[in-house]
Specification:
Helix content: 40-55%
Number of strands: 10
Strand order of the largest sheet: 2-1-3-10-4
Order of helices and strands: HEHHEHEHEEHEHEHEHEEHHHHHHH
Strand content: 5-15%
Distance between the termini: 93 Å
Length: 363
Amino acid sequence: MTQPKRMRLLGLLAVASIAFAACTGGATPAPTPPPTPTPAPGDTPAPTDPPGTLPAPELTSVKIGLSVTETSQFASKAAEVLGIYAANGITAEVSVFEGDGKTTAALQAGQLDVAMVGVSSAVSSQITDSPMVVLSVNAVLLTDNIVCQGDVKTADDVKGKRIAISTFGGTSNGAALLGIKALNLTTNDVVITQVGGQSARIAALQGGSIECAVVDSNLEQEMIDQGFSILVHLKTAGVEWGRSGMAVRKDWLAKNPNTALVLVASALAAQNLYWTDPAAMAKAYADFNQLELADAEKQVADFVEIGNRSMTWADGAFENPKEVLATVNPDIIDVPVSSAYDRSLLQTLVDIGYYEKIGSPAP
């Protein structure tokens, strides 16, 4: 190539370079990022647990005592027979002790891990060496009737008669006192007698050893069919009262918080079956109490009307029993009801998404 031609070619290349730089702004290409290092096996983050995941319980075997065989406490038994405890990592042995007094005594003696009792038992335990705390409440309305022998039909007929309850200071004691008030009588007009759980009270009525007794309203027609009189219906009064609470000793809770959470969650899941699968609950309840299925279905339907689906409560559910207890033991009046309950486990179940997981309305 001749010298003039070479010079012209170099000039054209220079002009092209200037034009290209003008179009690109003269930017320098970004450097290629270094490759992402492969994490070591121990550095891999654990996957996030799905909503509603429960912790592993400290105890895998627990003993639970029921004070009654009514629908108000049956969720704790249903969680056993329907396999809910087992699915959550716990083997539960659920038995019936007939009455708050016996059930509370077994819990405080360490024979039980959990007691299903009226919340009044937890309130009164605050002045003992083995204070208890309620973690959930199955029912917060009194629905008992005052049931009497067939010839006891009026308030005047009740005067001087015996009214059977479970335990002084317990739920049935409160029902009796409210029933007496509804009849415009006083405790001086009747004799309140400790007999035991509902089955024992009904047996005493049937045997004629007692004139009147506190009996849940879901057995009203059965009582009428047997010739008994119904003098008071507390269900219509709407009195807040913690009828059946899951109680544990405070020292036990401090050692076994995860177990407590799993137990509450399991009972909550079973409680919700009253609303989401009443047929399964009725079948299990009929087997438990050796009832005709139709009778069990009616009792389950009755409980849906008054049951506490979220298993939480307002303070009135503890304050009202406390007032009754104070009539038996004046020292109770200074006990703050907040010392007898712990709502934090239910709140934890809200926070981790357990309520949503089982389809339950949250507190």
